[in-house]
Design goal:
- The complex is a heterodimer of chains A (110) and B (115).
- Chain A has 110 residues and is mainly beta.
- Chain A has no helices and 11 strands.
- In chain A, strands 2, 4, 5, 9, 10 and 11 form a 6-stranded mixed sheet that branches. In chain A, strands 1-3-8-7-6 form a 5-stranded antiparallel sheet, with no helix packed on it.
- In chain A, strand 6 and strand 7 form a beta hairpin.
- The termini of chain A are far apart.
- In chain B, 0% of the residues lie in helices and 50% in strands.
- In chain B, the strands form 2 sheets. In chain B, strands 2, 4, 5, 6, 9, 10 and 11 form a 7-stranded mixed sheet that branches. In chain B, strands 1-3-8-7 form a 4-stranded antiparallel sheet, with no helix packed on it.
- In chain B, a hairpin with a 2-residue loop joins strand 5 (44-50) and strand 6 (53-57).
- Chain B is globular, with a radius of gyration of 13 Å.
- Classes of the chains: A mainly beta (110), B mainly beta (115).
- The A-B interface holds A 4, 31-32, 34, 36, 42-46, 49, 51, 88, 90, 92, 94-103 and B 2, 33, 35, 40-45, 48, 50, 55-56, 58, 90, 92, 97-101, 103-109.
């Protein structure tokens, strides 16, 4: 069983719409969760971190965490063509390792 | 930019050769983690160095080894290269041994091709 799984893509949304990305994790002991954005051929860039149940908003991005359901999501509001990228969900299982999902590729259509 | 620098940017090697990749951590960061990212996959954890000691290791064979220096920079060495080692190698720096809330900042990566 994979430690972190993301909903399969690719995801195509029109400009201005909401993009919804989902992620589940297998270890109930996970304490920290991160969303990274990765443009093609580039390195991952942190866009959100979340540690407690509930919502966390930062600009057009909202992360949601539900530890009981072992579920993390990312909403991108008012999607822009510049949001077209692969989004990686990651969690901390212990003190040193980040475990990543395979990523969901988002394309925002102008 | 994260302040994490990696070299070289691209590398082409042949099967059986050895390679060394280098990483300079962000100023003030004392922990370096290395990841391998195959095409179309998420990064896979190789190992982490904290205070010049290996602090944890993923499911990679011993031919993957590393070092951390007193200035917190790090090297990843891969011996006896195999075709499947072709990937993007990412270095990430963080603070204080990678506690569960520490944030890892990634360098631009080294693209390794093994022919």
């Amino acid at each position: 069983q994979k430690e972190v799984e993301q909903n399969s893509g690719p995801l195509s949304v029109p400009e201005g719409a909401i993009a919804s990305l989902n992620c589940t994790y297998s270890d109930r002991g996970s304490q920290s969760f991160f969303w990274y954005r990765q443009y093609s051929g580039k390195s991952p860039e942190l866009i959100m971190s979340i540690y407690s149940n509930g919502d966390k908003e930062d600009g057009r991005f909202t992360a949601q965490l539900n530890k009981a359901s072992q579920y993390v999501s990312l909403l991108i509001r008012d999607s822009q063509p510049s949001d077209s990228a692969t989004y990686l969900c990651a969690s901390h299982f212990n003190d040193y390792k980040l475990s990543f999902g395979a990523g969901t590729t988002v394309t925002v259509r102008a | 930019e994260t302040g994490v620098t990696q070299s070289p940017t691209h590398l082409i090697k042949t099967r059986g050769q050895q390679v060394t990749l280098r990483c300079s951590s962000q100023s003030g960061h004392n922990t370096v983690s290395w990841y391998q990212q195959a095409l179309g996959q998420g990064p896979q954890f190789i190992f982490q160095y904290y205070r010049e000691e290996e602090n944890g290791r993923g499911n990679f064979p011993p031919r993957f080894s590393g070092l951390q220096f007193p200035n917190y920079s790090s090297e990843l060495n891969v011996n006896a290269l195999e075709l499947d080692d072709s990937a993007l190698y990412l270095c990430a720096s963080s603070l204080s041994g990678g506690g569960v809330r520490s944030i890892q900042y990634f360098g631009a990566g080294t693209r390794l091709s093994v022919l």
